[in-house]
Amino acid sequence: MRYVFGPVPSRRLGLSLGVDLLVPKTCTMDCIYCECGPTTDCRAERGSFVDPNEVLRELETVLEKGPRLDFVTISGSGEPTLSSDLGTVIDGIRRLTDARIAVLTNAGLVTDPAVRAELARADVIVPSLDAVSPEVFQRVNRPHASLDPSTIVDGLVALRDEFSGEIWLETVIVAGVNDSDEEIARIADAVARIRPDRVQVNTVVRPPAYAGTEAVTSERLAEIATALGPTAEVIASPSGGAQRRIDDASKLVREMAARRPVTVQDVAEAVGMSLAESAKLLGAMTDAGVIEVVRHGEMLYHRAMARNGEGK
Length: 312
Fold this sequence. Notes:
Elements: E1 4-10, E2 14-20, E3 26-27, E4 41-42, H1 52-63, E5 71-75, H2 86-96, E6 100-105, H3 113-119, E7 124-127, H4 134-141, H5 149-162, E8 166-173, H6 181-194, E9 198-203, H7 218-227, E10 232-234, H8 249-259, H9 264-271, H10 275-287, E11 291-296, E12 299-304
Parallel strand pairs: 2-5, 3-4, 5-6, 6-7, 7-8, 8-9, 9-10
Antiparallel strand pairs: 1-2, 11-12
Helix pairs in contact: 1-2, 9-10
């Protein structure tokens, strides 16, 4: 599969089947914490990067196998709103499945009414807002030169007014970068204007794009969630997950690890294996040179090795 990946366990969306409309790594930002790695094509102009008909054909093939899904989630190798096929693909997903549709976005293009209209075809929109002041926005998100945090907030306010579905606003907190009381107060003011259904407070969990990007403590996350209001919560690790085995588990793990580094727990929940079985599978794939082990803090992650001269 080139465009559809998973299902993968998500801390926010349960068991989610991913859909990628981009080529790695195309984004409007180069966030220092991004688990997908540094941005190689930073742009703000929309375009068509893949054939939407091929995407939907792949999705139909996967859905025919009958995985029990909580969501089909448009995410992947960068910023999905850069794809001019976003609305078309959302409509196509709607025809193929009754699963809810989510879009993960960094919100950089929500100032565009056409982008907001396409996003509004989904059930849940998960935009990011990591900073409001221009200097902190530059440090944590490293945006395209055309992006401005104040206009992004205005765009999110407009999205709330136009969208009848759910908005789950995510804030990723990086130690020493956007975790000051002053910046959190600015984000809280923006949250009050945006009126999201949920505010999800997160930190650096997987290996980040840039070294030296560190997580804040769980205690600080709890303080920040309190400061951001009654709809805010600290995102927990996934629970439950897939109950069925995936026939080709190693292929699924390779697809998962090519998108983002995975833990033994991630694999266990995605393919319905025990932790011991998942560890054994990951060990065999590491020995075969398919994936590699990366340490981040106290955790071990597994990511795909480059293949046939391609990047991870």
